[in-house]
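Forum: Protein Structure Q&A
Topic: Joint prediction for protein chains with partners

I've read a bunch of threads here and the consensus seems to be that you should model interacting components together rather than docking separate models afterwards. I'd like to see that in practice. Below is the full input, 498 residues plus whatever partners are listed. Could one of the regulars post the assembled result?
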Amino acid sequence: MSDLILGIETSCDETAAAIVEDGKKIISNVVASQISIHQKYGGVVPEIASRKHMEYIIPVIDKALDESGKKITDLSAIAVTYGPGLIGSLLVGLSVAKAMAYAQNIPFIGINHLEAHIYANLLEHNEIKPPFVCLIVSGGHTSLVYIRHFGEYKLLGQTKDDAAGEVFDKIAKVLDLGYPGGPITEKLAKEGEPSSIKFPRPLLNDKSYDFSFSGLKTAVIYYIKELKKENKNIPVSDILASFQQAVIDVLVGKTIKAALKFKTKQIILAGGVAANSLLRKEIKKKANLLNIKVFYPSIFLCTDNAAMIASAGYYKFKENKKSSLNLDAVSRLPLERKNQ
Amino acid sequence: MNLTIITKSPEETKNLGKEVGKLAKRGDLLAFYGELGAGKTCFIQGISRGLEVKDYVTSPSFTIINEYQGKIPIFHFDLFRLNNAEEILELSYKEYFYGEGLTVIEWAEKIEQFLPKEHLKIDIKFKDRYQRTISFIPQGDRFNNFLEELSRIENIRD
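Posted by a regular:
Agreed with the consensus. Here's the joint model:
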């Protein structure tokens, strides 16, 4: 008999619910994005985010059930993100999931959002087998992880200041390009020359697997400031192309270095910035020369979604790893071996 | 007294932060002003060093508040994403501002009306690409004394 897991995700600005069969087959996948609501503020506004989650969560779950053609009584378990993320936002999904699981008397499973981003890859790629190196890169995270077995994570390095996606958002804000910064940067950068401005590649040749994007952010902002001061024309596309290239050089360089060091033949990309097509292209090019295979999810599974939560939940369900109904939302939750 | 210091590199900004961290006491609140890229997070990383925090101090733009455990707890606010001051009410801010740790706030201008009477304003401005002009403006007696102690530290001024 197959197992149907309902996944729920409300850690940041997407209200999402999905039903996944046996951890692989997406039966339904609903995402109500708040991007348009947050756009005018240039970023996620936490108080608004949690209010919107409350408005959306029940209709989104209903829609996921409707589209799946399944009934609530067909579910084997409910999986939900409990961290990391915005506390107020996390609590909405967590409370609904607990109440539903309790009422249906089925297991309730708390999921680490970062771990779920890794599982997003398993929804589409059967051939992924540990050990592998995973780069999780989004607006809230930049982490390089070594996965020896599923469920066993070694954090190799992470950002010491800003997350890569956050820097995309901030640069876009400085140039009045709106939110989120990633897609618009990618689009405008295509018309620019990536080698036209020399921006720093922080920590690229450093021994560690840590990242630091704050210095790069400052260099770009200062570059723009100086042009403005001198009343010069601002070459937006060239700036964005050069900035994007700097971020990608560092992400690719460190990830390849980790794969070589740990002798893995597979690299996995995860998180919203994994949707960046230049990142995908450049890491594939480098990895191919080394006989390393690169996997990344389809764009709709890179950004926050609940299918990845349901998938991660399925594997925990199979291992009988249920969570207690006392499980709390955790804002800063590291990726660890034991996460419950 | 007011105190203004020019730092020549991010490392110098961090070192200045470290000295400030060493002088910080439970219940202190430091309000940071300065545009994107000025070095607010960098200064606060220095503070955390001064308070012997082991954890990485990252930008909390995404989560709004990060908490760190050092010699005393540090509550690190980043209000970059806050749209209006009232949103801080959702974050049970009083538990932090009047709590048992050091509170540091980036983008403090967004919630000026909610700042306690006693606090230290720290304004960071670009001088050039690497140099920063950092002004300390005390609000209340505690921070007058604080700045006197800070200015007595050798080499704190050029």
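The longest strand of chain B covers residues 119-126.
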